[in-house]
Design the sequence.
């Protein structure tokens, strides 16, 4: 779902929401249609309102403006820089349970008391001249998504002349998301015990089989059972890890360590897997001394492992190169592959939960769960770092990078 709010002569901004990543297909279709209607009405409303500031509206223009604003499926409020509401729609009153049309920003902030300081966010929007997105706050047991959008003259770099405040009731989507998360967590817990038993018995079975051709076939089947049980257990554990990370229940032991040595260990562990596809794994020699990283060593290992394993999955020729460096006082690790690359219109799916780039499956014999990069993002952010797609081109490969806090301690002294 995408809202575009702009005045044709003075301001353009675009706010992207992630509803389609967490709604069923039918709901996404409705949301898309609703978003398009919202876009058209909001565009007309902002243009007309700003035009009204230059000249009085005729009765017909005023009627069309009011109709446009009131037809929006989300709450719409436009206020000037003094906090006076210039325009609002009926949906705002309904969503925020207001008894009358708001006259000031303070009126709008009253229902949010204790959950969101609306006046503070409004002032911050004016001061920093940027869109402020509040994904979710509670108003009378309802979940509300809020946007503060600065209106500037001239386009993009002028003075702020007002703020558009959008409110949307996302209670249904939020409850659906919570129900889905609970189901996944319960299912994962219930699956882990029987899968552990299957895996353990599969490991013991080969030792009980007598020699012979029939036993060799049975051993191959047992090996397949073991491999599959390991993969299923890994997926189940990923589900549980995601749940813990999202709920901030994961603890990080951030201690100094040598990330170059850690990377060498990961490359050694993946060497056999790369050799099966005749791919190279290379660690470029840093041009400068890399200080120790202040992060969780085991979690960092998981991040590097996830990214390189992902690169191996989608690379058939060439190899993977890892580089280390310093950027803005942080230690930066970049992992470049010569794989299939990612189409520009698919890149927004990266680092989202259960999202995979569909076009890449055509070039891979393996199926991905869509959790590796998402888990990596949660881990890196949990350690105070950032992760991103540096560059990618179809048929040429991709480069993923992440940064972690550094120390002033030379890595070789750790």
Sequence:
């Amino acid at each position: 779902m995408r809202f575009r709010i702009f005045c044709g002569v003075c301001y353009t901004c675009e706010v992207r929401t992630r509803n389609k990543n967490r709604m069923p297909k039918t709901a996404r279709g409705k949301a898309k249609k609703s978003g398009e209607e919202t876009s058209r009405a909001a565009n007309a409303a902002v243009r007309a309102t700003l035009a009204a500031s230059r000249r009085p509206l005729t009765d017909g223009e005023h009627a069309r403006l009011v109709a446009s604003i009131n037809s929006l499926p989300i709450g719409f409020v436009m206020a000037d820089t003094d906090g006076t509401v210039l325009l609002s729609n009926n949906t705002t009153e309904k969503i925020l349970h207001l008894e009358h049309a708001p006259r000031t920003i303070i009126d709008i902030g009253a229902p949010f008391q204790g959950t969101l300081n609306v006046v503070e966010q409004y002032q911050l929007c004016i001061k920093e001249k940027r869109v402020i997105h509040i994904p979710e706050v509670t108003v009378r047991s309802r979940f509300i998504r809020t946007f503060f959008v600065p209106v500037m003259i001239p386009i993009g770099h002028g003075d702020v002349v007002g703020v558009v405040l959008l409110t949307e009731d996302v209670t249904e989507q939020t409850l659906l998301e919570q129900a889905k998360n609970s189901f996944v967590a319960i299912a994962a817990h219930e699956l882990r015990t029987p899968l552990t038993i299957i895996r353990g018995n599969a490991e013991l079975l080969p030792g009980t089989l007598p020699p012979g051709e029939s036993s060799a076939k049975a051993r191959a089947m047992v090996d397949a059972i073991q491999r599959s049980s390991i993969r299923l257990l890994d997926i189940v554990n990923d589900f549980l890890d995601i749940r813990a990370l999202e709920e901030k229940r994961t603890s990080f032991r951030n201690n100094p360590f040598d990330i170059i040595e850690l990377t060498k260990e990961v490359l050694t562990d993946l060497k056999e897997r790369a050799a099966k596809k005749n791919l190279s794994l290379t660690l470029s020699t840093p041009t400068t001394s890399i200080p120790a990283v202040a992060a969780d060593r085991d979690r960092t290992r998981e991040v590097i492992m996830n990214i390189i394993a992902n690169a191996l999955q989608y690379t058939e020729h060439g190899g993977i190169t890892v580089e280390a460096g310093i950027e803005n006082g942080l230690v930066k690790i970049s992992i470049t592959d010569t794989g299939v690359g990612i189409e520009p219109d698919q890149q927004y799916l990266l680092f989202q939960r259960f999202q995979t780039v569909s076009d890449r499956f055509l070039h891979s014999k393996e199926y991905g769960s869509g959790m590796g990069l998402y888990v990596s993002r949660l881990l890196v952010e949990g350690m105070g770092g950032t992760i991103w797609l540096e560059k990618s081109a179809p048929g040429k490969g991709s480069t993923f990078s992440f940064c972690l806090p550094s120390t002033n301690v030379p890595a070789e002294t750790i």
User: Anything to note?
Assistant: Residues 254-413 form a domain with the Heat Shock Protein 90 fold (CATH 3.30.565.10).
